[in-house]
Amino acid sequence: MLLRATRQGYVHAQFMVGCAYRDGLGTKKTLAQSRRWWTAAAKRDHPGAIFNLALDYDYGRGIRPNPRKAFGLYKRGAKFGDREAQCNLAVVYLDGRSTNRSLRQGTDPKAQDNLGRSYLDGEELEKDKIMAKMWLTKAARQGHGRARNLLRAVRENARH
Q: 31-59, pLDDT tens digit by residue?
């Protein structure tokens, strides 16, 4: 069924076939095949496929790690609004794995906002309101409007 959908041009089906190969669902677990399908879907801007390829290159899942390629894929996924890609991109920035000097120094407000939201949501990182407030405050002090608004909401919720 999914393979038929891929032949009909459904990009999400390509992504799902990649996931099936990664997890061995209904097929033999084959990371090379999962990457093949994710690459096809990523060429058509599927955020989940882009993110999974980034993870492969970041952690060396079935291939040699390539931090530069992972960084580029995280950045691309983040532009599409993929929250997981945004979180991982923020971590790359703040860990100093980026080539951009301001990001290595932890002075990029977008990265700080992404990291703060990740601590607040508890989806990619363990939920930690103190860390969330710290990173959101850093971003807000640099004029990041979304961080400022979220920080205000967090403080108002703490009072109630």
A: 999 999 999 999 999 999 999 999 999 88
Q: pTM of this prediction?
A: 0.64
What does the pLDDT look like over 71-113, one tens digit per residue? 889 989 988 888 888 878 877 766 666 544 444 455 678 777 8
d(CA 110, CA 90): 8
Residue 88: C-alpha distances to residues 52, 116, 125 (Å): 12, 12, 10
> Is 141 inside a domain boundary?
no
Total structural domains within the chain: 1
Asked if residue 129 belongs to a domain, the reply is no
Q: Tell me if 138 sits within 8 A of 117, measured CB to CB.
A: no
* Burial grade of 24 (CB within 10 A; 0-12, 13-18, 19 or more): exposed
- Per-residue burial over 134-150, b if 16 or more Cβ lie within 10 Å, else e, is ebbbbbbeeebebbbeb
Structure tokens at 9: 């041009």
Domain residues for the domain of 38 are 1-66
29, part of any domain: yes
